[in-house]
From TrEMBL:
<protein>
    <submittedName>
        <fullName>TolB/tetratricopeptide repeat domain-containing protein</fullName>
    </submittedName>
</protein>
<feature type="compositionally biased region" description="Polar residues">
    <location>
        <begin position="130"/>
        <end position="141"/>
    </location>
</feature>
<feature type="region of interest" description="Disordered">
    <location>
        <begin position="130"/>
        <end position="152"/>
    </location>
</feature>
<keyword id="KW-0472">Membrane</keyword>
<keyword id="KW-0614">Plasmid</keyword>
<feature type="transmembrane region" description="Helical">
    <location>
        <begin position="283"/>
        <end position="302"/>
    </location>
</feature>
<keyword id="KW-1133">Transmembrane helix</keyword>
<keyword id="KW-0812">Transmembrane</keyword>
<dbReference type="InterPro" id="IPR011990">
    <property type="entry name" value="TPR-like_helical_dom_sf"/>
</dbReference>
Length: 726
């Protein structure tokens, strides 16, 4: 199983930046080309001919039989990779190789010496010292891909089950896409072909007819229900990933594996630990061994399978009521509910009940039922009304503790000017951003009136956002300790790892509560961020943490790529949006950064003052001094040292000398080490040399003692060959 794309790209960056990767320039190009093609899903195009033409500039008459350039370069590249992994890459978590006989790269997770069958379990003891070397116990079963007979047997098991709907065309839909996939025609499984073959639509069928999309949502829910009830112990899973209709087939990991029958068991180790339990492993002739294990002392860990439930706020989405007329009104309402169930779970700070739960409820379900039967704190319900070309959506968030309406909003659109699907998606995204984001309605309510006896992990995440709003050294220590206890108890909680990464990074960039008895803050920040991504590759907070850590590790391009990827995954997350805008601005892309910051602050006016401060600095850099003054006053982060130097800079340039002097003096008391090391402090933040010079000039203007010769050193650095471009 290939690691997540972001992890593979980070490993390639690590290799190419290492002084122990002894490769020529063309070998670097070779590696970049085959990796990019492979990660982009074009592995079948990686042939000697394409490598020769694209990498080595050979013309279209290239013949690999007569010109050995690709074979020779591949041989050298393999040796360079082997040497790297024997030296600098000895402990790297991902191994990249170019197998002989081809040029398609492979990416594999390292297997620890401690063994595949099990690794040490984390003690659920919050009083124990926290360590990033903790690992979790797991029993591993490896198996090859299911055969066609396996899949057809599972298909028959599903469609014949009394728990699978016999009304409608769910069975025909599922049978069609499974048979097409098994016949090697997966590329033909499109909305059009399904509409024609399964739902008998005419050949004039267009995407304006939502039948396939709605029925696909129904089928996904039916499969989800089946595997929760009758199919819980089935050996194989058939799923239909969102975004398409091509089914996937995989062994059901929830089926308990059987122990190996052996004639003699190995003796226990001398230490007295019992021998690891071994599990039966299936070895198909052409199947690949897929092994997942914990990595002791590295950045990657295995998520635990059976952990106590975290006490995040729980939300149930009731089906939106159809109050309109026309034959498609019910499908429209179902489509909106489906979009909400796609947008809301992207916010990992909350728990959203799944599609099966939603589908089992009536549109007018009572809050008492949600509270008593599902033990959920929040209910999102609403209605959709269509009349002619007009469509109106009403959404409401209710607190099941007392039945109060916490929030309500109406959205109106014209079907003649906007596509229905675009309307559904836009409304779902607005609702999700309003109620579920870190500073949204749900977080505000939980903070104001927490449930009785709520002292759990979610409190730590709320405290994290409170810390982000004020950035004080005192709160940093408390929240860091709290999150370390959380991840010791819940090692699979990706969001907590991501938040912990940011707190570790703050030890370095803000000089908050630095430790002398632990690895360097940057190392811990990167490790924690990578763990979050390993646990949940699409976790927005994890991607944000990795982006920020890489940014401060001087990997600007990779950091921005990850940030853009995260924003594409969850375009409604204003915390991420503000962080990416800040990083872009600091890296010299002030206009682009301002656009993202303005959007984040417009969507969430109560966002952290940190982003108001960055927006004020951006206004200063763009020459808008009145906006800079207004912005820094709105930020008002009195406990955060860097707030005061930014305020001093802005006030000095705005002609407010007394205010500039006062803020400068406050800053020097809070961070006496910063100005004497101003060049290094600005450089670690990826601020461009020309911007560094301007800031230093204004810092002097504010009365702070900048060392002599700093400007010359920055100019020399900018003129040095090999300076990293932006």
């Amino acid at each position: 199983m290939r690691p997540p794309e972001v992890v593979c790209r980070e490993q390639i960056s690590r290799i190419q930046q290492s002084v122990d990767f002894h490769a020529t320039e063309r070998e670097h190009r070779f590696l970049e080309y085959v990796v990019e093609e492979s990660l982009s899903g074009r592995g079948e195009r990686i042939k000697a001919y394409s490598v020769a033409v694209e990498v080595f500039g050979r013309d279209t008459t290239f013949d690999p039989q007569n010109d050995p350039i690709v074979r020779i370069a591949a041989k050298h590249l393999r040796r360079s990779l082997e040497r790297y992994y024997l030296t600098a890459g000895l402990a790297d978590p991902v191994v990249v190789a170019i197998p002989k006989g081809g040029y398609v790269p492979t990416f594999s997770m390292r297997i620890p010496r401690e063994g595949i069958a099990s690794v040490a379990a984390v003690e659920e003891n919050p009083t124990q010292p926290f360590s990033l070397e903790q690992t979790e116990a797991s029993n591993i079963r490896a198996s090859g891909p299911p055969s066609s007979d396996d899949v057809r047997g599972q298909l028959q098991r599903i469609v014949s089950s009394p728990e699978f709907p016999k009304v409608g065309r769910a069975g025909a839909f599922l049978s069609y896409i499974v048979e097409e996939a098994l016949a090697g025609r997966g590329h033909r499984i499109k909305g059009y072909s399904i509409a024609i073959e399964v739902f008998k639509r005419p050949e004039s069928f267009t995407q304006d007819d939502p039948v396939v999309r709605i029925e696909a949502g129904t089928l996904r829910r039916a499969l989800e229900r089946y595997y929760l009830v009758a199919g819980r112990k089935d050996p194989l899973r058939i799923d239909i990933p969102k975004g398409g209709y091509v089914p996937t087939f995989a062994w059901n990991e929830d089926t308990p594996p059987e122990p190996v029958k052996s004639e003699a068991a190995p003796p226990p180790e001398a230490s007295g630990r019992p021998a690891a339990t071994l599990w039966r492993v299936r070895w198909p002739v052409l199947g690949a061994l897929i092994v997942v294990a914990g990595l002791v002392g590295s950045a990657y860990w295995l998520p635990e399978r059976h952990m106590p439930l975290l006490d995040r706020p729980t939300l149930v989405v009731a089906p939106f009521a159809n109050l309109g007329d026309g034959p498609n009104a019910e499908l429209y309402a179902q489509g909106l509910t489906e979009e909400l169930l796609t947008a809301l779970p992207r916010f990992k700070e909350i728990k959203v009940f799944g599609r099966e739960t939603s589908a089992s409820l009536p549109p007018g379900v009572s809050v008492s039922r949600i509270k008593d039967e599902l033990v959920a704190r929040y209910l999102l319900n609403g209605s959709m009304r269509t009349a002619g070309s007009r469509i109106r959506v009403t959404a409401r968030l209710l607190d099941t503790l007392d039945g109060s309406i916490l929030w309500s909003e109406d959205y109106e659109n014209d079907l003649q000017t906007r596509d229905l699907f675009a309307i559904q998606m836009a409304v779902a995204n607005k609702v999700a951003a309003t109620i579920a984001q870190p500073y949204g309605i749900m977080a505000q309510v939980v903070s104001a009136k927490p449930p009785p006896d709520d002292r759990g992990a979610y409190d730590c995440t709320l405290n994290f956002y409170t810390y982000r709003a004020e950035l004080s050294v005192e709160r940093h220590a408390d929240v860091r300790a709290c999150l370390e206890r959380v991840v010791a108890r819940y090692p699979s909680y990706a969001t907590a790892w991501a938040m912990l990464s940011i707190l570790y990074l703050d030890e370095e960039r803000f000089k908050f509560n630095s430790r002398t008895d632990a690895p360097q803050p940057m190392q811990r920040a990167l490790q924690a961020a990578r763990r979050a991504i390993q646990l949940d590759p699409d976790n927005t907070r994890g991607l944000q943490a990795l982006m920020t850590a890489l940014f401060f590790n001087q990997q600007f391009a990779e950091a921005m790529r990850i940030g853009e990827q995260a924003l594409a995954t969850n375009p409604n997350d204003t915390e991420l949006m503000g962080e990416l805008g800040t990083r872009l601005a600091m890296g010299g892309q002030w206009q682009r950064g301002v656009a993202l910051l303005d959007k984040a602050l417009a969507l969430n006016p109560g966002a952290a003052g940190y982003y108001h401060g960055t927006r004020a600095l951006a206004a200063f850099m763009l020459g808008d001094y009145p906006a800079a003054v207004a912005g820094i006053r709105r930020a008002d982060l009195q406990k955060f040292s860097l707030f005061h130097i930014v305020a001093a800079i802005i006030y000095a340039e705005a002609g407010m000398s007394e205010e500039a002097r006062r803020e400068g003096e406050t800053f020097m008391k809070m961070r006496p080490d910063f100005v004497p090391n101003i060049a290094a402090e600005l450089r670690i933040r990826n601020i461009q040399p020309r911007d560094q010079l301007r800031l230093i000039m204004t810092i002097r203007k504010a009365g702070m003692p900048v060392p002599d010769g700093v400007e010359a050193a920055i100019a020399d650095q900018n003129a040095a060959p090999g300076a990293p471009p932006r």
